Amino acid sequence: MDNAALELRHISKYFGSVAANKDIDLTLKKGEILALLGENGSGKTTLMNMISGIYYPDEGRIFVNGEEAVISSPQDAFRYKIGMVHQHFKLIDIFTAAQNIVLGTGSKGIAHINEEVKEIAEKYGFDIDPKKKIYDMSVSEKQTVEIVKVLYRGADILILDEPTAVLTPQETEKLFAVMRAMKADGKSIIIITHKLNEVMAISDRVAVLRKGEYIGCVDTAKTGPAALTEMMVGEKVTLNIARPAPKLDRPLLEIRDLTVNNDEGSRAIEHLSFFIRGGEILGVAGIAGCGQRELCETIAGLRKAESGAIYHEGESILGLSPRAITARGVAMSFIPEDRLGMGLAPSMSITDNMMLKNYQEHGYSRKEKAPDENSPENAEGKSFKDRADAFFDRHCPFVNRKRARAEAERVISELDIVTPSTETPVRRLSGGNVQKVLLGREILIEPNVLITAYPVRGLDINSSYLIYDILNRQKEAGTGILFIGEDLDVMLALCDKIMVLCHGKMMGVVHADKTSKEQLGLMMAGALDLEEEKGKPMGVAKDSRIGEEQA
Amino acid sequence: MKNIKEPFIHISRREHMPLWKSMLIRVGAVLVALILSAILISAAAPDSQGFFGFFGSLFKGAFGTERRIWQLLQNTFLLLGVAVALVVAFKMKFWNLGGNGQILMGCLMTAICMKYLGGKLPDPVVWLLMLVSSLLAGALWAGIPAIFKAFFNTNESLFTLMMNYIAVCLVKFFISASTETQTGTMPPLSDGALPTLGEGQMGTSLLTILIFAIVTLVIYAYLRFSKHGYEIALIGDSKNTARYAGINVKKVIIRTLILSGALCGLVGFVLTGAINHNVTSTMDGNMGFTGIMVAWMGKFDPLIMAGVSFFIIFLDRGMSTVCSDFRFTSEALSDIVVGLIYFFFIGCEFFIRYRVRFAGGKTKHTPSPEQDREATSKEPPLPEEGGEKEGN
């Protein structure tokens, strides 16, 4: 009992009728790394928030070092020497690392702090410059500041919430080294994650939650990914992603020498050129914020390009309105960090979200493809009735909810979306179902180019595999897919080719079956630039590059 | 055992409450507020007519005579008209606080038409000009802030609010410039008044009621079933998503505010043209602000708003009679009572949304009551909503 740093007994937390945590027992031993594993929505973060004083448990007791503790605020948590590093950093951009670290502690003069921060950094092997401003920092540096902040306040129990989600493989290794150093110093660490290989690499024991319930705790050495997955999901899952052989088709979307600025006016994409062919999945890898978002938005017509060209089936689509681009068959499902910011209207029902892109057409002339341009030649060949229908389509003041509802029902049944009804607001759905609604709608318009960003972000394993299936089906139907991803293991298994971006520059396109995670990691960090390499390095995919053939 | 302090009040969110239960809470809250008010009034009144006298006066003031009933309905629908006009903008999360100014501009244009054209042109032509000019003036007063919002992202709340003061000054200027007496008030305009639909109070009120009943129904359908309504809701929910759907957000903002302002202008048209036949700088009766309350309390649904509007006007008219019956010299007590009732009415929403539990004695372990658990488990299983997301 006395070697337990933290004990939870019968902890429960309810949000309305939803039990986020139900009767959870958990023990963290002194000087161990405990991985908390579970799918999204399984209650990991809720549980940790109760330990760090953000929520207060509805039932149950918490013991710190064997003594009962009442943690009703983050200050309380600090008193018990518990520190949490949140998934979304809580730092002030215009302050330096040191200023952020002392914030709220009653500072003793900044020079002093710099020294202390350096001390902590040296002790555990951090790489940190206390005088650097946050806005100049990379994501991994910011994370370091967060961890040092917690250590500076004397935390003995550290909770890291999905710390590796934003890191490259190399940065993850560095983080793990630091964690091992902390462990050697007697700190107890809980790491939340849903990546199994990381669990195996870093943890001493693994606790598994499923749907708010505690499933069990096992020694890492005595288990394996398959067994853990089974605990997490509750059933046996095969962990193989299918990759049907691509049918090498003509290029559908062609990006030439594209340069785009971000919202702040600095370069987001620089001189980027590539093809997407029908029937292939082209992955885009890169650390967060290296131009993926801007690339998607530019293709979809939401962002102005500084220079360059985008051709779809040989015709330039640069400068067309989003509506016109959709009408040509380019669909985009972009899932931003908050999942609901773009592409879906969170407070609206599934039905209303279905008609997001076609509400303008009432649907009387639905059978023929909606005319994108109402040119006179187009109208010439049609019967009077058709023309009347088309006119009514455009000018009917009312939306056609009946059709949208039918579409919603179709998507719900085809993609197994779990929802009380078609009229449920999408923000009430779980992450996986939200994504299915989004993808379902995009596929419904039968696109020939599908741009999808982070489609499995935050999804549970089963939903993820369902999404991969959907994408593969689209691929086999001849759709060209641009897959912006974050999990390299998944990209290596799913994509045909992978393009790596670093600060908006292309580092190269490689065949997924001829490359490795290490190579991709180096390219993401900008350390390896295949574009500059002479000769033909391993795995380079020539035929996604402009130059060999022109459309 | 160590001394353990537990938070005294424990608040958790309710997922769902049956409609009848929530209605019961609301009705109960209003009843409690009315009883408290009655006690307060009968204690404070110099000439007390007792606890039940308060209720007598309240209802007499609202429903006492046929004339009063018509006025009650007329004011209800006027307020509803303003609230509906505002909701058009609110649905887009555009906070139009300029209702007062937009109404006044409608009044002003109507009065100008009546004064300078009334009697000189055939009545129907004057009516048409009154209508068109007041709609345009209201639309302009809301359209200007909308244009600035759309192109320069200015703060619409401040902008529309400031437009109110300009409208007040314009009205004052018009009155002093157009009347010779310099008294600051304008004699009633006789020419160009809108026709009445019958005798006495009923005749005037009926026209108002009809106009705004139709407006309310049309706007209800507009917001709910039309493409425009869909665009408005979409922009209100997420501008990025609207942009992504190919909607010209700037255009829709301006178009929607023109509609919102024009409807406020219509209220002004009715106020001056049909009811008062003149213009003052306070003719809006602050409906531009009361309407905001109606909109929020009616959850942006025109049909519920009709009920709320009726309730507010009932209180307003009832309380003014209470004040005179109980011989209060100032309106202050009336305001206190109205405030009290609003407080209860709005405050009870908290209990509809949240469950409040008090820390139960010393035992740390307080299992939630069994029936709580059972009640919740009966509800349709929600898809595992990110419990992790909530409260962030």
Give an account of the 3D structure.
The complex is a heterodimer of chains A (551) and B (392). Chain A has 551 residues and is of the alpha/beta class. Chain A contains 18 helices and 20 strands. Chain A has helices spanning 44-51, 74-79, 97-102, 110-124, 139-152, 169-184, 196-202, 225-233, 292-299, 322-327, 350-354, 376-380, 384-395, 401-414, 431-444, 461-476, 488-494, 517-524, and strands at residues 4-15, 18-29, 33-37, 59-64, 67-69, 82-85, 157-161, 188-193, 205-210, 213-219, 251-261, 267-277, 281-285, 305-312, 315-316, 330-334, 449-453, 480-484, 497-502, 505-511. The longest helix of chain A has 16 residues, at 169-184. The radius of gyration of chain A is 26 Å and the shape is globular. Residues 365-379 and 546-551 of chain A have low confidence and may be disordered. By secondary structure, chain B is mainly α. Chain B contains 14 helices and two strands, in the order βαααααααααααααβα. Chain B is globular. Chains A and B meet through strand 1, strand 2, helix 1, strand 4 and helix 10 of A and strand 1, helix 8 and helix 9 of B.
User: Helix coverage percent of residues of chain B?
Assistant: 55-70%
What is the count of β-strands of chain A? 20
Q: Count the helices of chain A. How many?
A: 18
| Helix and strand composition category of chain B | mainly alpha
Strand % of chain B is under 5%
- The Rg value of chain B, from CA coordinates, equals 25 Å
Radius of gyration of chain A (CA) equals: 26 Å
What percent of residues of chain A adopt helix (DSSP H or I)? 25-40%
Largest beta-sheet details of chain B: 2 strands, antiparallel
